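Hi F.,

I've been meaning to write this up properly since the lab meeting, where we talked about keeping a consistent format for the predictions we share between groups. The idea is simple: the sequence comes first, exactly as it goes in, then the C-alpha cells exactly as they come out, then a line or two of notes. No screenshots and no reformatting. I'm using this chain as the first example so we have something concrete to point to.
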Amino acid sequence: MALQQIGPCVRPHDHVSSACAHFVLDSAMLGAPAVTLTIVTAAIIGLGGALPAQAQDASPWQREAHASTRLLAGAALKTGNVTALRAGIEIRLEDGWRTYWRYPGDSGAPPTFDFSGSQNVQSAQVEFPVPERFPDGAGGNSIGYAGNVILPLHVVPVDATRPVALRVKISYEACGKLCVPAKAAFDVMLTGQGADEAALEKAEQRVPKHTALGASGGTLAILSVHREPGGAHERVAVEVAAPPGAPVELFAEGPTPDWALPLPEPAGPAQGPTRRFTFDLDGLPPGAQAKGAVLTLTAVSGEDAIEVPDHLD
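Output, unedited:
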C-alpha cells in the first residue's frame, strides 16, 4: 500500500496555525474509502532502511531556480509527558523573489510537505512565522516571504529514547515577475542536540501567538468579528486593538484550504487605538455556508502578531 500526503490537518478552532503531516493509504487495493493516519514508525508501516548512524546539524543546501532550501536540526522540548524535537526548513530567496505563506492570498500556491520517508516519527507539525503582504503583479495582493525564512518544525517521536530520521519533501513556488515551481528533498538525524537551536528559537518567536477573541496577545487584540450587509456579497467586519499610530496588517483564512477569502482592507481611521477592517464573503467553495464557519484571523503590528479563531455569527 502506497503512502501519499493529503495536505495540512484540520483542527477545530485552530486549523491553520500549523500544518500537521498526515497521509492516506492507497485504497484502490482495499476497495474502500481512503483513511487518514498520522506518520508512524517504519516498523509499523513497513518502511525499510536503517536509521543514519550520525546526527547532522543541517542538510546540505539544495539549489533551485532563484531559491535554496535546507533542513535544520535543533534541541528537544518537553511539554508535560510529550517530548518533541525542534527542526526547521530554511528557504533562502534571491533578491526580488518571494515565496508563499500557508494561505497565499489573491494568487499563488502554498508550500506542501511530505514526511512519509521518516522513521521513528509520530507527527510533524509545520509552523509559519509572520508573513508580509505584497502586490501580485495582476492587480491583487499575495501573502508570503522575501529574503530568508525558517519554517519551524515540531517533531514528536514514536520512541523518545531513540533518534529520529527526518526525511522531508517540500514543494513551493519562487516568484519574481514570474512564478517558478520548486521542489527539494532532504533528511537529517534528530537527536535533540542539533546546533541550529538559536536560529529555530528566533523563527518560533515570529510565529503568531494563539489568543482568544478579545484577549490581548501583548499590544494587539482582535476585539470583534461579525457579518454585515454588503453589495454583491455579505461583508465581515473586524475590530482590532493596537497601539495608536502603529501599523496593523490583518489576514483572514477560511475553515478549509478551498476557501479563497479576499484580503481584509482598512475601513476607517488607521491611527487610533481601535482599527476596523472589512472583507467580502467571496471565494467560498460551492455549498459552503458562512454562518457558523470558523475563520482564523492573524493580526500583525511590528514585532507583535496574534492568531484568533472565531465562529462567524
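Notes:
The helical segments are 42-45, 197-205.
The first strand starts at residue 3 and ends at 5.

If this format works for you, I'll send the rest the same way.

G.
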